[in-house]
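Re: beginner question about structure tokens

> Can someone show what the tokenized structure looks like for a real chain? I only ever see the sequence side.

Sure, here's an example I had lying around. Input first:
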Amino acid sequence: MTDKQSRILVCDDEPSITEFVGYALKKEGYAADIVNSGEEALAMAARNTYDLFILDIMLPGMDGYELCRRLRSRTAAPVLFLSARDTELDKVVGLEIGGDDYLAKPFGVRELIARIRALLRRGSGEMAAQSNTITAIDLTPREFELLACLMKSAGKVVSREDLLRDAWGWEYLTETKTVDTHIKRLRDKISAAGYSPTLVETVRGYGYRFKK
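And the corresponding structure tokens:
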């Protein structure tokens, strides 16, 4: 499946946003479903398979963070958060609960499509084909990026700051504990797949190392 054939679920309660995003996705050739609440999104996700979720954070009832948590229990498909709030704390929370990227409103169509393409590439077989080890594990795009960064530097210590920059592309985040949260999830999946979770070692006070 190419990214042009990908199916995307958009959840936002602002008509101006859903109209804009829906039009942009369909113009690019994506199959897009639009819902206005977290409850509707969960119902759609139970009936269909999606390659990407675009979630507003400030939703009526169930917010985007809680929706992401529930989606993460059933799918590893990438999650792109949309929000009118553009603070570092908002980004960190979004990452820690399983989001893969964060786009602040207002945004342009070119940036939106670029983010979508990047997330779909990371979640596709195109990137998974880079490593036989990774293909055996069901990873989110961000977990894949973390593991790929560590494996590229196998045997060497990679700092949390470098992992944030290379896996997220966000140099301005000063809160690095989100890396620890994702590493824990990554180790759990490595263990569940039958590999030793100690393949990813903690180097106290600095970062992580992938064993050769």
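Each token stands for a local structural state, so reading them left to right follows the chain. The chain has ten helices and eight strands.
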